[in-house]
Amino acid sequence: MFNNFEYFYDETNFSSFNHDYDYEEENIPDLIVVYESAVMPLSKRQRIIFFVLTSIVSFLAIIGNALVLYVNFTRKQRLLFRTCLISLAISDMIYTQVTAVIYLPRLFISQSALWVLGPLTCAIFPFLQTFSILVNSILLVCIAMDRYMAVVRVTKAQWEPGKLFCVTCCVLVWGMAAGVSSPMLTIYQYFKIYIVPYPEHPDDKLTYYIGHVCASHKDENAYYFSIIFSFIFAPLVLTFVWMNSVVARQIWSRRHFGQKPTPQQQPIPSISGEQSQAKTEVSAISIERKKRQVRLFKVILLLMIVFFLCRLPSWIYTIYKLNNDSDTNVEWILNYSFGVLALTNCLLNPYLYTFLSETIRLMSFLSSVIRGLCGSICLLCRKKREDNENSSA
């Protein structure tokens, strides 16, 4: 989820020296020496690829969430839903900007494992990342709850929370996320390392240069994230899936609703043909309602799939990384890949929640265009094959 140098503290092969050689195991040594290859985990091509991907996804995510803020401050809709969308956009922008600021400077230089942002950001940025991810995950569950209450419980009472309820929920979400994320302000530490390039010839003298890393105790970090995953993120995932599954089942069960005429819709005999016209109108309305219900069902499934693909791999990999001793090129590629995937989730959220109707219309248009192109290509291929058969005959 992050990429903040747990490696150097416990994984990288380095020599550590202390002026009196008498320090506790948990203390940071006065002098840490690493080979240059340890701070150059990615090739130039890999750095360029991740730099371009991070730049594009971050830019589009910031633009999309800025539009979400503008639209939701002017659009009239359920207050709780609008409050959640605004908070979701803010948390997405925080995560996107912080992650982009962390990734881009490091991918720009060959020593991409060094921390070039100074000691203050070493404490603040991990906190902001964890904070925004927690807010984001909780808000997605709140949106699922709002949809659940609006769809499933609509027959019992109208679901329309007031301003006090919305403000209270917003304060609780942001406050709880800040409290849970607060240990990140002290877990990471900024310290100096001495980097030794490999000599070109065995007889060459060793040289070094100084760099800085932002590191944490791996055991402490692993314990912290294991608790968050077990007691916060996993219950949020289960709640999100359960609520959306119930909503999807309700929508699917109602897809035939309205096909049978109600007493108010019973045809009235008429010698002028109005009865047949009324039946046709009712049938058209039923078909359109069924299409809309099926479309909403697919949207709910899509929301759950995107949530799983963009959130769960990052958390699982973080837990795995903190509980295993490995620091290979593949590990760094996976680390950045999951980071870009989390940024992609921030990019998709505006189109899956605020601009859902526009997204559906756009996808329908693109689908029709693609089907038309495929049909035209198939017709051309068939015609060409028939012409070849006729010419050979």
From TrEMBL:
<keyword id="KW-1133">Transmembrane helix</keyword>
<feature type="transmembrane region" description="Helical">
    <location>
        <begin position="83"/>
        <end position="104"/>
    </location>
</feature>
<keyword id="KW-0675">Receptor</keyword>
<keyword id="KW-0297">G-protein coupled receptor</keyword>
<feature type="transmembrane region" description="Helical">
    <location>
        <begin position="164"/>
        <end position="191"/>
    </location>
</feature>
<dbReference type="InterPro" id="IPR017452">
    <property type="entry name" value="GPCR_Rhodpsn_7TM"/>
</dbReference>
<feature type="transmembrane region" description="Helical">
    <location>
        <begin position="48"/>
        <end position="71"/>
    </location>
</feature>
<keyword id="KW-0472">Membrane</keyword>
<dbReference type="GO" id="GO:0008188">
    <property type="term" value="F:neuropeptide receptor activity"/>
</dbReference>
<keyword id="KW-0807">Transducer</keyword>
<feature type="transmembrane region" description="Helical">
    <location>
        <begin position="116"/>
        <end position="143"/>
    </location>
</feature>
<feature type="transmembrane region" description="Helical">
    <location>
        <begin position="332"/>
        <end position="353"/>
    </location>
</feature>
<dbReference type="Pfam" id="PF00001">
    <property type="entry name" value="7tm_1"/>
</dbReference>
<keyword id="KW-0812">Transmembrane</keyword>
<dbReference type="InterPro" id="IPR000276">
    <property type="entry name" value="GPCR_Rhodpsn"/>
</dbReference>
<feature type="transmembrane region" description="Helical">
    <location>
        <begin position="222"/>
        <end position="247"/>
    </location>
</feature>
<feature type="transmembrane region" description="Helical">
    <location>
        <begin position="299"/>
        <end position="320"/>
    </location>
</feature>
<comment type="similarity">
    <text>Belongs to the G-protein coupled receptor 1 family.</text>
</comment>
<feature type="domain" description="G-protein coupled receptors family 1 profile">
    <location>
        <begin position="64"/>
        <end position="353"/>
    </location>
</feature>
<dbReference type="GO" id="GO:0005886">
    <property type="term" value="C:plasma membrane"/>
</dbReference>
<protein>
    <recommendedName>
        <fullName>G-protein coupled receptors family 1 profile domain-containing protein</fullName>
    </recommendedName>
</protein>
